[in-house]
UniProtKB/TrEMBL annotation:
Pfam family, one: HTH_26
HTH cro/C1-type domain ranges (all copies): 10-66
Protein name: DNA-binding Xre family transcriptional regulator
Source organism of the structure: Cuneatibacter caecimuris
Domain of life assignment: Bacteria
Keywords on record: DNA-binding
Gene Ontology molecular-function annotations: DNA binding
Presence of the UniProt keyword DNA-binding in the record: yes
Length: 75
């Protein structure tokens, strides 16, 4: 399971990338922004765009937290 370390939408807004701007400039779709707001998974292309805008690495944004089921299955 992926867990967000930061509020991505807030961090983007602090850089001047509001939801309106991202929709207008077609940076992120509304459905992608909804997934971010709800802490759901995003694709690597979206993660790349976010990292470029925020000038950071993926590990600054997300962390992998294995569920109990994943621990049993893979450990």
């Amino acid at each position: 399971m992926l867990k967000y370390k930061i509020d991505v939408m807030k961090a983007l807004a602090e850089r001047g990338y509001t939801a309106n701007r991202m929709r207008r400039e077609k940076i992120l779709s509304e459905s992608t922004m909804q997934r971010l707001r709800h802490g759901e998974n995003i694709n690597t292309e979206t993660l790349n765009a976010i990292c470029v805008i925020l000038r950071c690495q993926p590990s600054d944004i997300i962390e992998v937290v294995p569920t109990d089921e994943e621990k049993i299955k893979y450990f």
